[in-house]
# Entry
Amino acid sequence: MKRLLDLSLRHKIPLWGSGLIVAATLAVSVGLMARAFADLKGDVIISSQGLGRTLAKTLFPVLLHDDLWRAIELVEAPLHGSTHADPLQAEAIFVVDPKMRVLVSSTPRTMPLLAELDSFDPDDRQLAAALRDADTSVSHAFEFGHSDYLHVTTPVAEEGSLIGTLVITHSKHVFLPRFFGIALGGAGMGALVLAILLPLNWYWGRHMAQPLVQLSRGMDEMVRGVPSEINPDLYGHNDELGQLFDAYREASAEIRQKAALEREVLQSERLAAVGRLAAGIAHEVNNPLAGMLMALDNLKRRSAGDPPLDPLLERTLAFLERGLQHVSETVGALLLEARVQLRPLTPHDFEDLRTLLEPQLANKSLRFDWAVRVPDSIAVAASLVRQILINLLLNAVQATPAGGGVRLAANMRDDTLSLQVSNDGEPPPAHILAHIFEPFVSGREGGHGLGLWVAYQTVQQLGGHIAIDSADGRVVFRVRLPVVETP
# Structure
């Protein structure tokens, strides 16, 4: 029983409702059948009493003059042409005197004249005892225990002179066909009612229970953490249940707002800590960096004459200059300088990235798919885009198992630079993905989680959008950066 009571409301409400409907239908059906049986018996008694009064008036003068043959004809007459299927038809009619002796009978062979009523079967003995105790001046209907017969009695008397008692006996067995017919009709109506009400009850029960189930789940989530939002269309009424849903929605909204505020505070604290650390490092790096840039510029000036520089050395110097400028601009951003002169992005920046990654790709035997199709100059900060791609590509290389593949795709479309970095391997767990762009959150053992955070901050600084998704064993970072030509 306890297990039944512990069921979910979406099962318990329809089940209990169905049980109540079935029980009520059965109770009504049984009550109607009992009423039908009582009405049938009442009809038999009323009919027999009417027949008894008619026969009593006719039999009184006949019995008064001891005309037995005429009396026998009178009591046999109602039984002529009778059928056993008619519940109103009597089975036997006889008259007894006050001493319970048979005066006349429709069945003289089984109930001979002047025989004592007590000498017959137990049912007749019970009838004799009942007549002795009853007022024989009025009509009665007798039904004894498990007897199969119903006896209706009428006094044969006129002007206070009582000759005897007329007894009309009916067999209860003839009631059964008509009763079963009534019961079958009632059962059919009950089945029709069940066929209509049970589906309606099941639909209504499920409809009522589903909002309660959702509310229960939401309350459980509210206890455990941040609750999910419930569809307002799930229950649109303004009764007590609707008011409970409104209160839950208000409470859950407050909790979600509080949780969001706590996340923002936590993220702000992390950003402040990272900012202080970055500023300290930037100050330490800025001085030697300025010296290297000055030394590289002096080297280029001294080598500007004849003979010209070796092409390989010239490319190396250009590579070093772009790299040091990248570092200088990044340090300037960390120091929050008001204005930093940023050069536009070119295909050489992408080539530099491939050059930087080749040793790490070779160490892990990784395949590098290259799909870069960009114009010669793109009006977006080259150092910032390099910073984004370096962090994403290094993250991809570190997350890719040996023998896997890393892919870089870049193209321009509708004044938007689209970048896509993908790699083979299992995606981070869901709890890591939810915070993948926050500092100190890493899905890799030994990772510090700053690379993706720096990439995210840089994309936000450029007014772009970055997202991560995974499918078919690949992790994909997609970056979209607006390109705005300055006049």
